[in-house]
Records
---
Amino acid sequence: MNGIVECKGLEKFEHRGFKVLYKGSIENKQELRDWLLEEGYTLNGEKDIELVAYIIDYLYNGNLTEATRKAQRKIKGSYGFAITNASKAEVVATSNNHPLVIGLGDKQNFIAFDLSSLLSYTKKCCLINNGEICILTPENIVIVSPTGEVINKEEFQVSWDGTMDKGKFEHFMLKEIYEQPDGFKTNLSGRIKNNKVKIEGLELTLEIVKSWKKIAIVACGTSYHAGLIGKGVFENLLHIPVEVEIASEFSYRAPLVDEETLVIVISQSGETADTLVALREAKKKGASVLAITNTLNSTINREADYGVYIWSGPEIAIASTKAFTMMLLAEYLLGIYLGQIKGSISEEKANMLLENIYKLPETASKILAEATQYQKIAEKYYQKENAFFIGRGFDWPISLEGALKLKETSYIHAEGYAAGEFKHGSLALVTEETLMVALCVQQSTYEKTLANVKECKARGAQILALALEGDKEVAKIADDVIYIPRINNFVAPILTVIPLQLLAYYISKARGCSIDQPRNLVKSIVIE
Ligand code: AGP
């Protein structure tokens, strides 16, 4: 199908001269199946895309746009589809609760179900809203409303500088890990003046900030782990209670959020369906919503009341790395910004934090300069089939993130645990075959974590510890130690994760895995 950008994970289907590209999830599937069966169609599988093709086939009377409009009214759910008919050189596309983006090129036009898929073709784009239909030819684009009026869309130019090639790196994941020092610099530039944090586009008053009696952070996967760090950051800097919840659970338990709550949604893609549903639920309940995202003009960004960009540039590898650390930095800066407005953070403390935050690019570069040690460690442990990551305090969410990185890229079964919780059952799983990755960075809980490590060692586990430079104690217990430069404990999580990203990368490489596109996964999950 000429001119269509095929998103990763996109389904295709052909039927009697119709070609369909589809992404999403249909809610009234059974109803549509019954109807199509009654109309004499034979359904070969369970896939939504097959239903779309047959519905269009049934409704088509020579006008593809009309058939698409009627199909749109019949199909409920969150989806986008693009369709052609062999009789005419045009593509007709529509969406419902699902991103749909048009890319404008030179004598060629593109359509995609997420913005980042377009960027290697064109940076001139326009966004299609729910129920709108676009008709594309190589030379022309017509967009019509659900009722058929032609709409003039505003075009915008995506300003991301990130190139879509791997450069000198073998994989996008490694490239993105190495982009972190520059990412920190980008995020810091222009955001701090005279030790005061300023976030572009965010103009909050004391009255607004004081009206928020509670924060609820909602996100999925890696972004959820960023939220767990955010809890510690905001509670410490704003002195208000912070809850963190997995987005797919949030909307289904009547969450206690109201006009006095700030809901912070975190999403790299800005399109994750679970997070979007949670955002809408929070708004329905009157909460203010602030989105921390990486994707300009994403749905989550457009629907939130306030936005903070993490300026990572496009993240291509499915395993999120640089977006995670930039989310953390965004949370620290946001916490200081709100704390400075509210007066809940002293000048001295803000200065101390900013001083340490300024050290991030340099310290991250130092960690990245030690990459050879990760290759050696990976060679030693890559055949393991089970790994546990443990840590306390801020080391705990980083353990969760380290385990997620390892499991999604290497397919090793890996779990993250609060170190103190591990003995309440999971310790039973430890054998001589187990790899324990012990995060011993946070100093206030250091002795207790070490005691947990010893318990695992006594059961035969191999211990790979992550510790601060100069730590001699941990080397007496661990089989291997990865040292990171000494940095203030409060901002340490932003760096602690980098060795774990490298570990996951090199172990996956040693196992010959499809690092950038692990099996069964897609970059942005737009179904609930
Ligand atoms: C992380 O490596 C994963 N790819 C995944 O957990 C991801 O963070 C999650 O799906 C949320 O995505 P989002 O940040 O785009 O909302």
Note: The first strand starts at residue 11 and ends at 15.
---
Amino acid sequence: MVAWQRSHGRHHLPWQRTRDPYRVWLSEIMLQQTQVTTVLGYYERFLARFPDVAALAAAPEDEVFGLWSGLGYYSRARNLHRCAQEVVARFGGRFPHTAAELATLPGIGRSTAAAVAAFCFGERVAILDGNVRRVLARLLAYGGDLAVAANERALWTAADVLLPPADRPDDIAAYTQGLMDLGATICLPRRPDCLLCPVQALCRARAGGDVERYPVRSRKLRRTAQTLWVLLAQREEDGAVWLHKRPARGIWAGLWALPVFESREALLAACPSAAEPQDLPAFVHVLTHKDLHLHPVTAPFTSQQPAIEGSWVDADRWPALGLPAPVRRLLEQRA
Ligand code: SF4
């Protein structure tokens, strides 16, 4: 795995050319649930604005959310910001060097902590993100249901056992990166390219001719659906829109958003002074665990304002705010 990563693995990604824990940590958080090609632009913009952990810690939350806007999963942005503040407050602005200490910070799970410790400080410690879980489960033909915590723990133990020997400390970064690269480019969820795989001769799932059976995970997320009416109130004289900051819990927590209502009647009650509210085409926005059926309604205002918490935000200000993706899309369509 180490030799293969050095000759055939990925080396071109910007966060691979550094051992700066701030940059590695930032990339690891961004890469959770987001494709590399999407992350590249966000990563560069974040670093241009927040070149180090102190700059990120000192930034207003709205600015962090604004730069994160479009990456989704905003709890990551919130934890990113809190983590930077804790690194400054608890560790004097320097990331701790061990996976155990890193894992005490907000938003840093066991695997992310291990990746930062291995890449930046050479700690001999295992990772088990989604890609690596798939690689190892196949390599070992591990049939335990990974929805069961004890089975997940057993795979962690196997990942520890497989680490390169302790007397070759330089290998851990290449090994860790190699597992990630293999999972991202060859050992894909569907139709893995086993002929190109450096560990094909060792792979028990391949020997059994049933690679896609692994990893086994029985419990699926239970999806729910919710219908919301979205008020797009716009001031006629200058095009400003009515936005409010969402509470810290629930959907779109902490983001700036258009007001939403459980019924059309409730929405109309909030804009008695608007001239002729109009329905826009409804659409579905898919979250991890929920389908949001959104019914936007535009309402032009002249002198009055909606009877719901919020404020007018000028057309040159809202693009920089942290907005949920469907709200941003709606506003862009009306701009
Ligand atoms: Fe994955 Fe195939 Fe390699 Fe096994 S041989 S680890 S299934 S790519």
Note: The CA atoms of residues 225 and 291 lie 5 Å apart.
